[in-house]
Hints:
By secondary structure, this protein is α/β, with parallel strands linked by helices. Helices cover 36% and strands 22% of the residues. The strands form five sheets. Strands 1-2-6-3-7-17 form a six-stranded mixed sheet, with helices on both faces. Strands 16-9-8-18 form a four-stranded mixed sheet. Strands 12-14-10-15 form a four-stranded antiparallel sheet, covered by helices on one side. Strand 4 and strand 5 form a beta hairpin. It is globular and about 80 Å long. Residues 124, 156-157, 190, 217 line the site of zinc ion.
Amino acid sequence: MQRTHLRLAILTFLFFSGLNPYSLNAQVSQRSAGFGIPQNPPLVGDTTALALEAQNWLVDLIKINTTNPPGNELAAAKYIAGVLEREGIAAELLEMTPGRQAVVARLRSNVIADPSRALLLVAHMDVVGVDRSKWSVDPFGGVVKDGYIWGRGSIDDKSMLAANLAAFIALKRGGVHLTRDVIFLGTADEEQSGDASIKMVIAKYWDKIASGYAINEGGQVVLKNGKVQYVAVQVSEKVSVNVELTATGKGGHSSTPTKDNPVVHIAAAVDKIGNYTAPIHLTSIVRRYFEGLASLEDEETSKWMRVVDTPDRGEHAQRYLSDASPMWNSMMRDTVAPTVLEAGIRANVIPSEARATLNIRLIPGDTIDVFVNDLKKLVNDPQIRWNISLDGGFAAPNSSLDTDFYALITRVSAQEFGGVPVLPFMSTGATDSAQLRLHNVQAYGLRPMPLTEEDQRRVHGDDERLPMASFAKGVDCLVHVVAEFAVNR
Ligand SMILES: [Zn+2]
């Protein structure tokens, strides 16, 4: 009998005999090792049934509309608490601001608690809004069809909420001995990073989530032509800061235009800023990412990736890579995108004020004052006032590539996805991880669900959807990562 058949037979037996076949310490497949040397048995069994259960949680969570603003995370928090309580796990709702809650639960280790060893599984419950007219399905209907789970949050970030729940519950069901506390956290207000966000959890309830390690969104498993290409583990992220420009003038009747028209001044400024390219700033993480990616790209791209940091050919390489991908461009430099314009009330009135909002994404370590000064010089217009928003993000240190946990994530996800490269990654978007890293947590972005570029683009867009098979694979990977890190073998 082949090993896989034996394993299936045992699983089937356990299932019908009422025993839990997914018990983490049910060591159902004792691999026969060569020369009688015993190998470590796998910690987890088949996760197929667990993934199906988790898919139902994901569908239910999609049906709870947590569009932020206003968020309405309380309904999702209560749902999650209900799932946990059915497993005999006490969950606690943490009030962030009146009416907005996070949800937290803990599995205790069998040794004296040491927060610096604890593992935090974090995902956010809120989602961004939708333009219903552009969707082909109800974005909050929890539709499952054509092999996909459809809906706002199906990827970002309810897929991680459900997968984290699965990994957490697998530990509880397994009755395993934990070597560290494992904490589940569902956060609110991530999409606006406002007063109800993880900042508030840290400020008010740090003792509930104090940990040395975390798994969060921010990573990617890149699927191309039906094959997983590589796994990107997010260890760093760019910093988002908004700047508002205000042009003022006298205003008046549009039949007698003057040179101080604020609309013209703001338009000229936006034109210059929109065409500005900041100097290159390659971080160690981005260099490592290009190094790893070079082996997977076409000949031309990989040639330039390999010399991106050289004095003679670097400049050309940087230009080539910037042109090839907006993401690579943004990984190599600070960027600025004008996003909002406001001016005017009537066709025949020159307004006395016009405004533009700029969203700036800084490479961690670069400072907003320096960047804005460069822009001011470029615009060189005394009629324009600059106001740097105070609620911008904070630059956090990278998570370390030298921890045992990073090594474990690399090993397990490579195994899971057929030996593909696992690369450290700096995301151009912001996540809750920056706040955790600022509090000494080694946070790793791992969304272990293979996605094509096309499906990845639907995040925050129309018809967001997650392949069912990718979700099941992601649950499997996450269960293995968490079990291998936290279970005493
Ligand atoms: Zn997200």
